[in-house]
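Most newcomers find our protein records easier to grasp once they have seen one. To make this concrete, we reproduce a full record directly below:

…
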Amino acid sequence: MIEVLMSKIHRATVTEADLNYVGSITISKEMTDKAGIFEYQKVTVANVNSGNRFDTYVIVTEEPGVICLNGATARLCCVGDLLIIMAYETIDKKNAKDHKPVVVHVDAENQVLSECR
């Protein structure tokens, strides 16, 4: 078995940071649906602006375009920062050669531009 990138949301813009919420990253449903990311799934977040990288879990919101860092993660990003949000899966090594992750590209307002595999 090997852990591989399942999907990523590429260059999403942080819209909110809520230090007083109990942990996680809130992501709009459109983005999670396109990326195949589930609520409460563990993700790795890379901040393009600062270089910060951290793991957290996802909370899904129906509100379009939302990327909100909650709790301690709110200290690792600023509103306006660009993020790469990555989810992983474990697959059999024999399938790794043919594996292709889903990549969701969004615009500056976090509206999905494209998804590709």
